[in-house]
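Design review, sub-item: ligand-bound model
Attendees: FS, YL, KQ
YL presented the inputs for the iron/sulfur cluster complex:
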Amino acid sequence: MKYLFHYKRIGLLRYLSNHEMIRMIERVLRRTDVRFKMTEGFHQRLKLSFGQALPTGVIDRAGLFLLSTDEILDHDFLKAANSVSPPEFEIFKIDKVDEHFELGKSVDGYFFKLIFLKEPEIQDGWKVENKGKIWIVSFFNAFNSHSPKPGEFGQYLTIRNNAIFKD
Amino acid sequence: MKKDSNVLKKLVDILDKVEKPSRYIGNEYNSVKKDAELSMCLIFPDLYDVGMSHFGVKILYDIVNKTDFAKCERAYLPWPDMQKIMIDKGIPLYSYETYTPVKAFDVIGFTLQYEMSYPNVLRALRLGDIPIKSAHRSDEDPIVIAGGPCTFNPTPIEDFVDAFLIGDGEEATTEMLVAIKKGRSRSEKLEFLSKIEGVYVPRYNNKVRKRIISEMKMDWAPVDQIIPYTEIVHDRGVVEIMRGCTNGCRFCQAGMIYRPVRERSATEIYDVSKKIVERTGYEELGLLSLSSADHSQINDTVDLLKKITDTSFSIPSTRANALTVEIAEAIGTIRKSGITIAPEAGTQRLRNVINKGITEDDIFSAAKLAIEKGWKKIKLYFMIGLPTETDEDVKAIGILIDKIKRMGFHEISATIGVFVPKAHTPFQFEAQIMPDEAFRRFKLLNWTRRFAKLNFTDPYKAIIEGVLSRGGKAIGEVVEEAEKQDLIFADWDEMFNPGKWMKIFEDKKIDLQKIMSAKSFKDPFPWDFVDSGISKGFLWSEHLKSIKERLTPDCRDGCTGCGVCQKFNVDNVIQEGIS
Ligand code: SF4
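KQ shared the predicted structure:
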């Protein structure tokens, strides 16, 4: 069976590199009671495949990864996994997906939000909302196109907000 | 203790600007946040990536956090890029659990694992806004304590530390915290501390005897080990399978100061390992000891550990004999990084001088077995500058590397260090070679570069380590000046500046030749007041035997008279075979 995990990382966890994030998630899964299949070799790893990598420093509310297993992963599993997760990391949904499901083929892209503390210079495709002293910019980014880096446009915070699936 | 939400707020603003920000974020899984009457912050005086790999901190963190009256948090020395931003933005050194400035803790505990970290200790105090010198601290400041192997010669840094704990910390740390809690003033706290066995408070004690635990209690094995987010030097769970070593290598300080041997049983090792894997999710566990192959139940241990699936195990496989290779093979899959063995010296004569109880046959059978078991890479460790060493001994290192390479390894590398005599060892009476001589001896090995990767350690580093190890109180001024001149992280090649160190020695009129020279039994040492349990007479007789190339057997097979067991009324704790 193949499962699609949706997770978020907030707060200081945004400073994890992509590689550090993957290892952290592997260890969360290893702390649950479920025994997953491992790769061979000295360092046995879980077989996971991840959505698009993010630059260090970006808050993520739209993290995705796929996991194949013979076990049934239900809501209780989700709760158990979160109970052994570090603060500021949360798996918020697990969907059972078709065996042929692939992230590259199914994810259209992501919506990003940039928070500014001063009025930003508007770029193509940006939607800007002004709320008192802050400006919230949102835009769509196609899967595997360049992700905004922290501070790239002078923004205070960078958030990957949600994933958009095809169909 | 007041929490400082300011630190956290400021951190968020700067972490985008430093290298590897994850090493500063704290709040890792299994870190402990609790309220308690007394607070302690353990500071590892090096980068997070190094400090998190260190096992002693894990033990004490766990023990203190299990008490009902005290809590323990952690801090590390930030890399210079982070230090600079912290100073600019007014962020003090802070704890990784609650982002509290270290100054707000009741107790600061340093672990002194290597002498080169002394300037780092001072830098941590400075970043923490705590007076560097003990004499300048007031009732408002934390009590600064230190432990770890370097405390066996505390004199070079005794101006900066309020109280040293010498020896095993499992029982003494809690006693120290109780004393600090009871004392109403700084001087009363220090007075109470000075009465604890194993504790040295400069100006209060003129003698101190190391602290010892008679066995390794199950309760003291930390299982809820903190998982770093950052990739660190040894990112794995750790089980200490044995403390102490009975081999009696004459150069080895750990082998002398951690006597007697205390083994943990195979079943306990298994129970602890299983819990660590469950609580951490670690994919690798390291079995820690000074000489794993000597553990009486090592085969039973390996058999039991095989029951823990999806986990790899590693042991420090430095003892160059076939058993070590067998264990390394039995315990896990073959590692890409290759197998490591430490012949230490090139000739049998010199190996006898240092009492390294292995023969050339042992070395070759270890290498042969490694080849048979499929290892393609091998790493070897040697030292130059050992007592009585001749050019023939040095050249023999090259010949040995050549012979081992010819056995069929694809890749061979050898690390060759300069021997630094350490306090409380039979070689404390010996001279250390100076850099010019070390470079000359290194040259005798250059021809082996044709087929082996040679890695010479810096002879200037050895000199500085030698001064910090065998120097006395006067070295304190050197350490203070070194920190002022930014000679921190001296162990890191990119930060090491020998010229500046040499200049400081000169300015402070440190007689290098004198510190480096050979000593006699009658010569006083700065650490004579520290009783490791091993008598100076035993160390001297071992020194004399070394010159005559005579061996002293392993004391598992019968006491060889170092004196520790009688003095402390303890014994080697050896497990019975259980198969
Ligand atoms: S007293 Fe004897 S048995 Fe005990 S550590 Fe020393 S040599 Fe070994």
